[in-house]
Amino acid sequence: MRFGVVTFPGSCDDADARLACSLVGDVVQLWHADRDLKGVDAVVIPGGFSYGDHLRVGAIARFAPVMMEIDTYARVGGPVLGICNGFQVLCEAGLLPGALLPNASLRFAMRQTAVQVQTTDCAWTRGCDMGEVLSIPAKHFAGRYYASQPVLDEMEERGQVALRYVADPVPNGSLDGIAGVCNAFGNVLGLMPHPEHAVDDLCGGADGLRLFRSATMVPSL
Amino acid sequence: MGDPVRARVLIRPKAGILDPQGQTVERALPALGFAGVSNVHVGRLVELDVEDPSLLPAMCEALLANPLIEDYEIVE
């Protein structure tokens, strides 16, 4: 199992994402200007501030050459995980529904969050238990998930709300406490908390590894 | 293509979506003694010289605005 972790100008969590992947498989770095995915079995778009967050978070990264490849890869069922800024990029690219707005508090939110698994019918949560609560740190300014009510209803119906904050109030004002969203086929997941920062008990917990390990598992029929 | 035309694109949060920036400004004004201000919204302005203004709506849809969360208004 070989993961590819994208590095955009301004990515800053790519090193931790590569470390997390290396604990469950092999990993290669994908550069923003790459025009092929080097034959990887799964792609991780890490957190950070791609292209300086200019215009809107994730808006410019969407047009990077590597994103054209990831778009095709995701649309044929390739597993893609977007963390924080990666989640924002996937929404801007139209690979996930909705958008991420500045936190309702207008403050940078940095804390350990508890998120509950809402579906295991997803490449990145299939190794989790339904309803399981994962302890994962979050750190973001624009993490307020928004989608219109008809889209939210459709997502609920299809089981696309993958992760929900347990805490009340939620750290960023996300609609319905949404922390993570998957696409209709379950191969693309985006989430605001950082599973790549929770991969070792020495550093506060390893719950984040559950997501990376899920991608290495064969789906059960 | 003719000479470039100066265009402005006004981008604002869609009605009904929580706008904490607008709320913050609205709360700050009375604190400075400016009474009678309501419905404050904060958006952004993009100014550009464009040879073919008919492309502006497509530019807005593709990049300048995110139509899921923002409305745009083109002022030539």
Characterise this structure.
The complex is a heterodimer of chains A (221) and B (76). Chain A is built from five helices and eleven strands; from the N terminus they run βαββαβαββββαβββα. Chain A has 221 residues and is of the alpha/beta class. In chain A, the strands form two sheets. In chain A, strands 2-1-3-4-11-10-9-6-7 form a nine-stranded mixed sheet, with helices on both faces. In chain A, strands 5-8 form a two-stranded antiparallel sheet. The two termini of chain A are 20 Å apart. With 76 residues, chain B is of the alpha+beta class. Chain B is elongated and about 50 Å long. In chain B, 11% of the residues are buried. The mean pLDDT of chain B is 95. Chains A and B meet through loops of A and helix 1 of B.
Radius of gyration of chain A: 15 Å
Query: Uncertain runs of chain A with pLDDT below 50, 5 residues or more?
Result: none
The side-by-side strand order for the widest beta sheet of chain B comes to 2-1-3
Number of strands of chain A: 11
Structural class of chain B: alpha+beta
Mean pLDDT over all positions of chain A: 96
How many helices of chain A? The count is 5
Name the largest protein-protein interface in this structure. A-B, 18 and 10 residues
Q: How large is the radius of gyration of chain B? A: 16 Å
> What is the rounded distance between the termini of chain A?
20 Å
Q: Give a quick account of the main beta sheet of chain A: strands, pairing sense, barrel closure.
A: 9 strands, mixed
Widest beta sheet: strand line-up of chain A: 2-1-3-4-11-10-9-6-7
Strand content of chain B: 25-35%
Biggest sheet character of chain B: 3 strands, antiparallel
Q: What's the CATH topology label of chain A?
A: Rossmann fold
Oligomeric description of these chains: heterodimer
